[in-house]
Specification:
248 residues, alpha/beta, Nucleotidyltransferase, domain 5, 2 domains, five-stranded mixed sheet, ATPase_NBD, ATP-binding, cytoplasm, Type III pantothenate kinase
């Protein structure tokens, strides 16, 4: 029987766990990072029916969860692999200290460089992240507060919004009520984050990036003709790094 491979993408808000079969992501489960513990790992193992001989891969930006995964799997599982900067990548780091690059950036960049040498990548999670890749080299990164994260804080802090039921659906006109106004603001912040980066690269560096990659929890209803929408780009990148480095 062929080994299964599960991949953990440990972010600040969610721990995602994906099952890969025949090099394709076939199932994803996620648990809030704050509540993630040993029972969470046992639950995911049960859901995916993972055996000690299967492959377990993880990339993490949260040390507490890294320790949980290491402690749980080190005892009985033979094939535990960590995504970190010591591995081989299909891109270079230029002036960037690779020891300080987040694993999520490593995963997303690896995925993009599998397809093309020049890319702009936008990740929308707890943080909004922009990554510029030129000639298979990470040229720079931009990080801002995540849009969904910022809006949730607004709903928590603003007295008039605390009990508002709000979902981030598409809105292309100025709102005439609070809900639609928030939807418009959300979409404009996301659009502005992307467009501002593309505009400054076009004007100051004469570089034109068409159809940038976008991924993350805050990309619902984004235009797929203008963007390369890749669900779980970090998970998929981690799997590709694992496959190319360990050739299993």
């Amino acid at each position: 029987m062929k080994r299964k491979t599960i991949v953990y993408d440990v972010g600040n808000t969610y721990v995602k766990c994906g099952l890969f079969e025949n090099k394709k992501l076939v199932k994803v489960e996620q648990i809030h990072t704050e509540s993630f513990n040993d029972d969470s790992v046992a639950h995911l193992n049960s859901v995916f029916e993972i055996l000690p001989e299967d492959n377990v891969v993880y990339g993490s930006v949260v040390k507490r969860v890294s320790k949980i995964l290491k402690d749980f799997y080190s005892a009985d599982f033979k094939n535990l692999f960590e995504i970190n900067s010591s591995l081989k990548f299909n891109f270079s780091f230029g002036k960037i200290d690779k020891q300080k690059v987040g694993t999520d950036i490593l995963g997303a960049s690896y995925y993009a460089c599998k397809e093309q040498k020049d890319s702009m990548i936008f990740l929308f999670g707890t943080a909004a992240v922009a990554i510029k890749i030129k000639d298979y080299k990470i040229k720079g990164v931009s990080i801002a507060p995540g849009i969904g994260f910022a809006f949730n804080k607004l709903l928590e802090q603003a007295d008039g919004l605390k009990h508002l039921q709000f979902s981030y659906t598409k809105q292309i006109a100025m709102g005439t009520n609070t809900i639609d106004a928030l939807k418009m603001g959300f979409n404009m912040l996301r659009r502005g984050f992307i467009q501002a980066h593309l505009d400054i690269l076009k004007t100051s560096e004469k570089e034109n990036y068409t159809r940038p990659y976008v991924s993350g929890g805050d990309i619902k209803n984004i235009c797929k003709t203008k963007h390369k929408v890749v669900d779980n780009i970090v998970l998929k990148g981690y799997y590709q790094i694992f496959e190319d480095n360990f050739n299993l």
